[in-house]
Amino acid sequence: MDLLDRLHLDVPVAQAGMGGGLAGPELATAVAAAGALGTLGLAPAAMLGQAIAQVRDGAPGRAVAVNLLMPFVRRAHVDACVGAGVDVVVLGFGIDRRLIERLASRGVFVLVMVGTEQQARRAVACGADGLIAQGCEAGGHLAGVTPALSFLPHAIRAAAGRPVLLAGGIASAADTSAALTAGADAVVAGSRFLLTTESRAHPEYQRRILAADKTFRTTLFGLGWPAPHRVVANDATRAWCSADGRVALIPRLINRGSGLLAKLPDSVAAKTVGLQTGRLPLFSPIAPTVGMADSSVDHAALYAGETVLRLKSVISARQAVAELAPGGQ
Ligand SMILES: Cc1cc2nc3c(=O)[nH]c(=O)nc-3n(C[C@H](O)[C@H](O)[C@H](O)COP(=O)(O)O)c2cc1C
User: Fold this and answer.
1) Are 112 and 229 part of one and the same domain?
2) Most CB atoms within 10 A, among 113, 165, 261, 312?
3) Is residue 158 in some structural domain?
4) Is the domain of 20 the same as that of 102?
5) Which residue minimizes the CA distance to atom 3 of ligand 1?
6) How many angstroms is it from 19 CA to the middle of ligand 1?
7) Could you tell me if 165 and 269 lie in one domain?
8) Is the keyword Oxidoreductase in the record (predicted)?
9) Are residues 228 and 281 in the same domain?
10) 324 CA distance to ligand 1 centroid (A)?
11) What is residue 165's three-state secondary structure?
12) Pocket lined around ligand 1, Cβ cut-off 6 Å
């Protein structure tokens, strides 16, 4: 299958869907209009259908993709995707055979992000049309446990001819070329697109990750979803983590027992960041977005991949696509 034809792409580049409001319709539209795959991050179900329509209007003739961040997905999200006729769905951090079958029956192209060969085999067995192989250098939550280029051959083997996109460590045309040479069909970038003018990351969040000299893996921001994630340091991690990201006992225990919070209604979940002051070790996965108080960057997750150590500035999404395209600048 020619992935570029199937997904109406000019270049083998996809923007990662980043939830919690980071990757909204402005970013997905700009990326799609530039010829790459724009992806909406998971948003409240009531807003998703409208966001899909906005991308379709802003980038006519291009595919619209939605990331379904599985621990937080409810039936209404899926109904919104199907109802709005989304072209591509990316499943992250969970594999659900019935969901994949439902999407496939409506002609949706289903990609599943995986971090191990076992996950890759399961995704294929459940009907995935293609895989996203995530490496451990990625920003945000981590399925990946090995560097992306080391994991890629395992994912390609498991994919048995289906397309494989590589995520983690992609910040330049040279990274894209290396991934394609190693057998990937396309690349997925998150951190690069987080650092664009169209992302809804809080400007101080963008400044902090550009200034960082280190990223690390932790589980601190795990209230409701205690899965590992890659961040840069802030007051919260300095107070509650060791230098290598290991979380102090109290927040670790709180996070472990908080699984049911992932099922809170969207409106309630969005308010949890306001409760994060650093006095109590309650740290949700929601990252600082435009409109939040400046102080949120001290107490909320500053997700970032290893690439931020070599990224220099916030640029337009169009420029980011141009810089990531093979042979691009
Ligand atoms: C700020 C941020 C938020 C993310 N949110 C999500 C998400 O909601 N769902 C998901 O499947 N992956 C998410 N990811 C992971 C991306 O899908 C992707 O694997 C990762 O960004 C690739 O690594 P990179 O950041 O080095 O480009 C996120 C990544 C970042 C940096």
Assistant:
1) no
2) 113
3) yes
4) yes
5) 18
6) 8
7) no
8) yes
9) yes
10) 16
11) strand
12) 16-19, 22, 41-42, 67, 69, 92, 113, 134, 137-141, 167-170, 188-192, 194, 287, 303, 305, 307
The pair of structure tokens assigned to 259 is: 């699984």
The bridge status of strand 216-218 relative to strand 229-231 is antiparallel
Read off the pLDDT band of 272 (50, 70, 90). Answer: low
49 and 87 part of one domain = yes
The count of structural domains within the chain is 2
State the pLDDT at residue 258.
81
**Cα-to-centroid distance, 23 and ligand 1 (Å):** 10
Q: What is the mean pLDDT of the chain?
A: 94
Please indicate, yes or no, whether residues 149 and 274 belong to a single structural domain of this protein.
no
Q: Would you say how long the chain is, in residues? A: 329
CATH of the domain at 85: 3.20.20.70
Return the axis-axis angle of helices 317-324 and 25-33, rounded to nearest 10°: 50
pLDDT in tens, 135-183: 999 999 999 999 999 999 999 999 999 999 999 999 999 999 999 999 9
E-assigned strand segments in the chain: 13-15, 39-40, 65-69, 88-92, 109-114, 130-134, 140-141, 164-167, 186-189, 216-218, 229-231
Confidence of residue 271 (pLDDT cuts 50, 70, 90): low
- Kindly state whether residue 275 falls inside one of the protein's structural domains: yes
Residues 66/28, Cβ–Cβ less than 8 Å: no
CA of 66 to the centre of ligand 1 (A): 13
Ligand 1 atom nearest to CA at 42: 8
